[in-house]
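Running low. Any example?
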Amino acid sequence: MGSGGGGGVVDGAKPAVAMVAVEFVFSALQIFIKLALDDGMDVRVLVAYRLMFASAFLCPLAFLIERKKRPPLTMKVVLGLFLCGLFGIAINQNLLVLAMKLTNSTTIVTALSNLTPQSTFIVAILTRQESVKLGKASGRAKLAGTLVGLGGAMVVTFYRGPELAFMHRLARVAGLRHGGRGLDARGTTAAASPAARVVGSFLAITSCFSFAVWLSIQARVGEAFPCHYSIAALVCLSGAAQSALLALCFHRDTAHWRLGLDVRLYSSAYAGIVASGFAFPLMSWCLRVRGPLYVAMFGPLIIVFVAVLSSVFLDETLHLGIPLGAVLIVAGLYMVLWGQAREAQEKAAGVLPQDEEQGEESTAPADAANGETK
């Protein structure tokens, strides 16, 4: 009996352990991307290689797992997959990596990527998939959470504040220093100019809206083509083709595309195989077991992980404005999630009239709390 109880505790803890692992994998991804950028790798080439590695890993996996239950591809599904690759992968990833290059900060971009639920809520309103029900607590919570999250983004973008020196001591205590490019005369990460920081921050916010558009399209594609692995593989393949074409428009010489046994290869392989091939299926399993709200609750962990890892391995300077803004963004995130949970309870109890139950994608923001920002 005791053994059975112990097994139940272990089984109950598996989703939590899995989500912590997923967030850590995505956090390490930000570090790898920053190291590749500091080594001089082009933003567009890095994204293209990441998606190539992801496609090479996911396509055989999807073929083996779903070969017997995969429905035929229609033109509508193919168009949907193309748009998913464009908005959810090509545009989203290029904007995020470019934002990281301009801000010269993994922590800023990671904090802003948690705006995805609020961005999805705004897109759902603009596309009339959802309406603001200010007469209900759920509607007020989602609206307030969106405003609080956007306020936090403005704090991260425009306010630096004093440096939090204790984070730098982590690097010195651990004996780790970032040996790549992007360091100033003191050996610390060079700060981006105020203009570059603002532009990069707005690119990161724009990437959240691109991801929100993808969520809306993905929901419809999933209904017509209910094969998770095949969708992931085909979206990555579409995004890889689009990103490679974009990169080739800027760099046709082999020097920019050459990979050796260096950080460029390791970053591309880690991003494609580990982050996309390992973390996404694990996160999908957690979604099936515990649901989107449970998965979304772990999203803010990545901010903590990235802040520590970037301070230790990149010797990145952390200023007060980043954690202050991150707290507001996370607070807004949880307000939106609470509003979604409350709205789901109201619908389940039959509180909402039938004609108000618009937009089946209204719970999609919870799926995107990790936002492939990562």
